[in-house]
Amino acid sequence: MTAAATVSDVTMRFSEHTALAGVSTSIEQDAITGLLGRNGAGKTTLMQLLTGHRVPSSGRVEVFGARPYENDDVLRRTCFIKEGQRYPDHFRVRDALHGASLLFPGWDADLAQALLTDFELPAGRPIKKLSRGMNSAVGIIIGLASRAPFTLFDEPYAGLDVVARHQFYGRLLADYAEHPRTILISTHLIEEIADLLERVLLIDRGRLLLDTDAESVRGSAVTVRGPEERIQAFAAGHDLLHLDTLAGTGRAVVRLRSGGDDPDTCGLMAEPTNLQELVVAMSLAPPATGGARHSSTDALQEVPR
Ligand SMILES: Nc1ncnc2c1ncn2[C@@H]1O[C@H](COP(=O)(O)OP(=O)(O)OP(=O)(O)O)[C@@H](O)[C@H]1O
């Protein structure tokens, strides 16, 4: 894989709190990567490091082969869209777009105009008078129309309605297909974007739990239902991530290991676990039982906690 950005053994401390602890990963060039994790996991912090908004307490961050901090050459090729983006008080929508057009060499004015129409945004309206969702739409337009070689969306759609979100996904995919670039997107709406993702990074309490291609995630875990003792017998050859039981009957999320039993053989009903369920189960799994503890030969690349 060619990396647009690399993060090597990065720790980020805020006085007493360690937001990222020894994180190493690469952001694949010309791919869409999802950055997932619970509140406070460290997603925004990682994006701030990648965009030169912060320098790590230790470790090294490189984007396009150089450190991003105060590096105009890197930052000109980077567009960072964050939730609740603020603009100067007097700015109208068109001022924000005009400002962005000056910043980004690859700016596509036609795409910006088409997106204004999609999101029904009045170009002449003062930004401070926009609704929350409309404000998010301004950021999304800038992020897409910038055509920046490295575009980061940090939970870009606060308040955006479901129709607008789907317009965003559609536009993102269509434009990315024509103009491949490196896109990193953090979101809590995992199922909505699961199909867009080519790579998945899952952070939990400042550590990477999952760093893999999305294809490997699909089919890597099953959700099984049945008598608890059968679930335990089945899970013995795999990784039990999460188990709910009621009166002896259970529902479990199990990461598959090669060589383990089939759910059928154990008399269990099984269905593939979707990305969102897997993220929930991995984030909730205690280190002693969580799949992330195990190094394995499975398709998933796991990082020890
Ligand atoms: N400037 C700061 N000073 C002190 N602590 C901070 C600072 N910025 C972030 N943190 C802490 O670092 C941790 C990671 O925060 P971060 O914003 O990266 O999480 P996140 O994964 O983006 O969360 P969310 O999904 O809620 O946006 C949190 O515990 C947060 O309180």
UniProtKB/TrEMBL annotation:
<dbReference type="InterPro" id="IPR051782">
    <property type="entry name" value="ABC_Transporter_VariousFunc"/>
</dbReference>
<protein>
    <submittedName>
        <fullName>ABC transporter ATP-binding protein</fullName>
    </submittedName>
</protein>
<keyword id="KW-0813">Transport</keyword>
<dbReference type="Pfam" id="PF00005">
    <property type="entry name" value="ABC_tran"/>
</dbReference>
<dbReference type="InterPro" id="IPR027417">
    <property type="entry name" value="P-loop_NTPase"/>
</dbReference>
<dbReference type="InterPro" id="IPR003593">
    <property type="entry name" value="AAA+_ATPase"/>
</dbReference>
<feature type="domain" description="ABC transporter">
    <location>
        <begin position="5"/>
        <end position="230"/>
    </location>
</feature>
<dbReference type="GO" id="GO:0005524">
    <property type="term" value="F:ATP binding"/>
</dbReference>
<keyword id="KW-0067">ATP-binding</keyword>
<keyword id="KW-0547">Nucleotide-binding</keyword>
<dbReference type="InterPro" id="IPR003439">
    <property type="entry name" value="ABC_transporter-like_ATP-bd"/>
</dbReference>
